[in-house]
Specification:
By secondary structure, the chain is mainly α. 79% of the residues lie in helices and 0% in strands.
């Protein structure tokens, strides 16, 4: 290894260490320095595979910060570089394709993700791929896509096949089997098999117990919490979260960014239990975690504000809610994903109704409804939900005939 390469590799290891320490703002700066130092001279210059690996690590950080557009650009470039300069590096291309599927799915671009799932499946459908965890990971990616699109019947055989492969290959620990149990838990919960869902969540949590930086830990926390809340088992949810968050913090550090969604789940559990003071404390903690990451995605930042807004409104602290609502509106206008924007517009409209701003609520509802209709269609539940919020805005504004029409259309 040349002296220059050694310097770059040392800087890259430093970036990875900053990631593990939870110093994600510094970590991003370090990754950018690594990529700039090792940047190819021009588009046709040969590119070292290590540079592409660095790109994938940087993309992982962006995904966790929920900067979906930025991560898509990095991963698309990485895939093009591999195809052009290193077509035989199938392991790296496989990882890049699955990471690209991840970030596309987070933006609800499921049709765009499908070709990359298929491509990864072709690379994994070998004797070695089926004997390890590669094929399992692709099955899980496709199952996750189906679940996100509410195709429960299509998701189940994929989950079942992945679980059987884990058993056959003796895979009991790690992110791959953990993801399979996570998807099984979500699917079982959606199908009403609550005991089966809880068993899957607990098995999955055990599978990643030794992986300090597991990305899906917080997903297990959210899944288990929503399951407990659906059964009105609020103290159980809170105890579970406190125990597992504390255990992770011992091994990582207090308030590590990887715990952000787990902390959000704790705020949600306290809010559902009616303990609004503690819910606010955890929501504030969630907000601090997101802000400490440095340049987090707009959708994530606004989600923190929405959680705090709901709690403040519940406490009738309207003047404080107004401040957050203004901040949320400013962020909202910069969102690029229309599906996310529609959901946020709808939520903000509901809060405007709570605050007595009925005309503004109507305008926000109309925007949300137009976007949701164009994406989901007339006969979708989310379109009906938009119409219901619009009806509430009309009714609160004493526009009774318009409210009735909106409610009737929602019911239809």
């Amino acid at each position: 290894m040349s002296k220059d390469h050694l310097i770059v590799e040392t800087a890259w290891e430093n970036a990875r260490q900053l990631f593990r320490e939870g110093r994600w703002k510094d970590c991003e700066e370090a990754f950018l320095q690594v990529l700039e130092a090792n940047k190819p001279a021009d588009d046709d210059a040969p590119i070292d595979c290590r540079y592409i690996r660095h790109m994938l690590d940087y993309a992982e950080l962006l995904i966790l910060k929920e900067r979906n557009q930025d991560s898509r650009i990095i991963l698309n470039n990485a895939i093009e570089m591999l195809e052009k300069f290193h077509p035989d590096e199938t392991d790296l291309l496989f990882d890049a394709c699955l990471a690209y599927v991840d970030t596309l799915s987070m933006s609800d671009l499921f049709e765009d993700a499908e070709p990359y799932i298929e491509r990864a499946m072709q690379m994994a459908d070998t004797r070695d791929g089926r004997a390890g965890d590669k094929y399992i990971r692709v099955l899980a990616a496709r199952a996750a896509s189906r679940l996100s699109q509410e195709d429960l019947d299509e998701a189940k055989p994929l989950i079942d096949e992945a679980e059987k492969l884990c058993t056959a290959n003796g895979i009991t620990q790690g992110e791959a089997v953990g993801t399979v149990f996570l998807l099984k838990g979500i699917h079982s919960h959606l199908c009403g098999a609550l005991d089966e869902a809880r068993g899957a969540f607990l098995a999955g949590m055990n599978a990643i117990a030794d992986d300090d930086t597991s990305r899906i830990f917080q997903d297990f926390c959210f899944g288990h919490t929503t399951l407990m809340i659906s059964q009105s088992r609020f103290p159980d949810a809170i105890a579970f979260l406190n125990e597992h968050i504390a255990e992770r913090e011992k091994r990582l550090c207090p308030d590590h960014p990887l715990l952000k969604r787990a902390v959000a789940s704790l705020a949600m559990a306290h809010s559902a239990y009616g303990d609004l003071d503690e819910a606010e404390a955890q929501a504030q903690r969630y907000y601090r975690l997101v802000e400490s990451m440095g340049n987090a995605g707009n959708e994530l930042r606004i989600e923190c504000l929405r959680m705090l807004l709901d709690i403040l409104v519940e406490q009738s602290r309207y003047s404080e809610a107004e401040v957050l609502l203004t901040r949320a509106n400013d962020i909202l206008e910069n969102l690029e994903n229309d599906y996310v924007k529609a959901n946020l517009l709808n939520d903000l409209a509901r809060l405007r109704v709570e605050l007595g701003h009925y005309d503004e609520a109507e305008q926000l509802c109309a925007r949300a409804l137009a976007l949701t209709r164009s994406i989901k269609g007339e006969g979708h539940l989310e379109t009906a939900m938009c119409l219901s919020v619009l009806g509430s805005a009309y009714f609160s504004n004493r526009k009774i005939d318009q409210a009735e029409a909106a409610y009737r259309e929602a019911i239809a």
